[in-house]
Amino acid sequence: MSADTPMAVASVSKSFTSLAVMQLVERGEIDLDRPVRGYLPEFTMADPRAAKITVRQLLNQTSGMADSTFREKSLPQPGTLEGAVARLRTAELAAEPGTAFSYHNTNYQVAARLVEVVSGRPFRDYLHAHVFAPLGMRNSTTIDTDRDLPGSARGHLYILGQAVALPEPTGFGNGSGGVLSTAHDMARWLIAQNNGILSPRSVKEMRTPSAQNDTYALGWSIRRTERGTPVVEHDGDLFTSTAGQLLMPRSGYGVAVMANTGTAFADADALMDGVVAMIEGGTPQVPSRLSPYLVTDLLFTLLTLATIGLAVRGVVRARRWATRRTGRQRWRLLPYLAPLALCAAITPIFRLLARGRDAAWIQVAYLYPTFVIWLLTTAAACIAVVIARLAGGGRGEPRPPLTVPTAGSRRSG
């Protein structure tokens, strides 16, 4: 890896999409407070309230769209921005537009499609012509799906303390998370934020949060560091890589980080916090040498090995078990189906624990790899034991021959 290696910046892409929209606003081609449908007639939903969604509400995530009513990750994935908008036709809103904040990638996919339609050119071409080329970002682009990720943007999971290279799970991200960039290019991007990329009025607009969420503006988050320094930032998470960007408007410092490890490990956040601490004259916090993930991975690895051992024992002894149970007692096999039921319920359980955020089954596996391996092993082991016991009961042990005592064999009284 080098400073010119293209990597995924994930949801940092939202700042690029917001900028593209604001450029069209400055040219008078878009009004932030007009309904999206006035510019994008194809944007229709099953909920009639969608007709009131404004461009601003897409960018500050108050449109009313949410993972709870539109499962954008676990549904079949589109291949284009046009397809991303088309699949909303059967979707409902979770809230009245403009009344509640909900971080939802589809907002920015609709915004990117809006840029395509209003500008009359593909979103990728628009960014190249109006953002990347003017800023000298020669190695940056935007892509549609995981299939478009170059080899340099492939990421990793940590399993048993080792970095394991894995492909990103299937997903669509253009507009919401599709930008690929480099360290050098991101430096040019951050410098441009304070160097006339937009008018001061538009920059202020982009950094003004909504009434529904005082930390999220138009593709940027507003907060303070631990030492109280005001910053504007945005982070990004894929399942195999992470990224972050941060600006300190008062001092002019900017930081961009891309890490080729997944969202479960928050490496980009840790690196960002360390760099910011140094800028502010502090000392970066050194991560613990004993990763909590290593302890968890070891635990589930031991459980997986123990499960395999118990399964072998259960299959070997299945015939003996079957001879001791009548047909009516085989209801005792029902608890062995519990791991299979948990496999089927894992995504609804995740949504509950994640407060409505959506994920596909394979994406949950990327977040908790050793747990899911253990769960699948347990489900397979239980099914194998059940089949073996049922088969053993079908064959059964041969019964001893029936003998009838003769009169001469009876004892005298």
TrEMBL record:
Superkingdom as given in the UniProt entry: Bacteria
Transmembrane segments: 293-312, 333-354, 366-391
A molecular function (GO) term: hydrolase activity
Alphabetical keyword list: Hydrolase, Membrane, Transmembrane, Transmembrane helix
Beta-lactamase-related domain span: 1-264
Protein name per the record: Serine hydrolase domain-containing protein
Organism: Streptosporangium fragile
The organism's taxonomic lineage, starting at the top: Bacteria, Bacillati, Actinomycetota, Actinomycetes, Streptosporangiales
